[in-house]
From TrEMBL:
This is DUF2188 domain-containing protein. InterPro entries: DUF2188.
Amino acid sequence: MSHVIYRIVQHDDGWAYTVNGVFSEAFATHAAALAAAKRAAAEQRVPGRTEVIEYETPDGIWHTETAAGIDRPDTDVEDKA
């Protein structure tokens, strides 16, 4: 199972959260960014439906897999501000 960390950071004259180097929208306050990160982290843990997915790898080969709806990551919110 993977582990996803939402980090609260200053960004674009405000606050945001970041996950794996990707920033959320900017929020005017630290509290708003923290609340948004907590919501996003909670939503990521919610089980979904099991789905069949298809994708092409860079070498041109197509793959078909079943993505289990219960295979959700652990999430945490890290706030060092």
